[in-house]
Amino acid sequence: MLTKNKVAIITGSGRRLGRQIAISLAKKGYNLIINYNHSQLEAQDTVKIIRKYGVKAILIEADISKKLEVQRMINRTIKEFGRIDLLVNNASIFLESSLKSTTEKKWDATIDINLKGTFLCSQAVAPYMLKQKKGRIINIASLGGLQPWKEHLPYSISKAGVIMLTKILAKTLAPDIHVNAIAPGTIFLVSEEKPGVKHIPVDSIPLKKYGNSKDVTDMVIFLSTTSRYITGQVIPIDGGRSI
């Protein structure tokens, strides 16, 4: 599939996995909307990196949990490029929060960004993709949406919601729009790991290693460019933890 001049929106693409997804798409020739909410400096760095690959990159600040801000982002994309070929719903927050420690504030923040934001962005791009009679939506879910992570209760529930949303969108938007989800396990981002962050013991993973950004970005590229007959699916990238 030719990707030159195609347009992708990646939410939460200023840093970490979102940045790596954006870079991988830039290498394939996508023009990009780099969305951020709080990570302005990191997002500016992402844009600088992307432009080295000869594609266009536009930085847009938007809180994806707010419908008006989402619509403003989509309107700007259409104004600049006239089309939207790919939406990667990556923006997410990950809070440690058990049943006892989950406050209303933690619950609302997690559900609003992780689930509501994914819904609002998908709802906003769908009319343009349907008009084009083609498009791809990739939701970054989580192994926590497939397994009950009791110490991350709102997060796990929000990602389970993203998985069901993926399936409903796939049925609703077929045959023109393919909608799939990727469910990463532990992805170790060498250049962006914070000191002191603890990961699960590597021995608890069947493949005995952590994933890296390329494990996820390769699947994003496959689903957005090569895949022809996959929709409504959730693809774990977890070294076997989900089995």
Output the helix-strand order. EHEHEHEHEHEHE
Give the CATH architecture.
3-Layer(aba) Sandwich
Give the % helix.
40-55%
Number of domains: 1
* % residues in beta strands: 15-25%
> How many runs of DSSP E, i.e. beta strands?
7
Describe the sheet with the most strands. 7 strands, parallel
CATH topology: Rossmann fold
Blueprint of the fold:
Layout: E1 7-10, H1 16-27, E2 31-36, H2 40-51, E3 57-61, H3 67-81, E4 86-89, H4 104-132, E5 135-140, H5 153-173, E6 177-184, H6 213-226, E7 234-237
Parallel strand pairs: 1-2, 1-4, 2-3, 4-5, 5-6, 6-7
Helix pairs in contact: 1-2, 1-6, 3-4, 4-5
Describe the protein's architecture and organization.
The chain is α/β, with parallel strands linked by helices. The chain has a single domain, classed as Rossmann fold (3-Layer(aba) Sandwich). 42% of the residues lie in helices and 15% in strands. Strands 3-2-1-4-5-6-7 form a seven-stranded parallel β-sheet, sandwiched between helices. β5, α5 and β6 form a beta-alpha-beta unit. α1 crosses α6, α3 runs parallel beside α4 and α4 packs parallel to α5. The longest helix is centred in the middle third of the chain and has 29 residues. It is globular, with a radius of gyration of 17 Å. It starts with 6 loop residues before the first strand and ends in a 6-residue tail after the last strand. The relative contact order is 0.14. The mean pLDDT is 95.
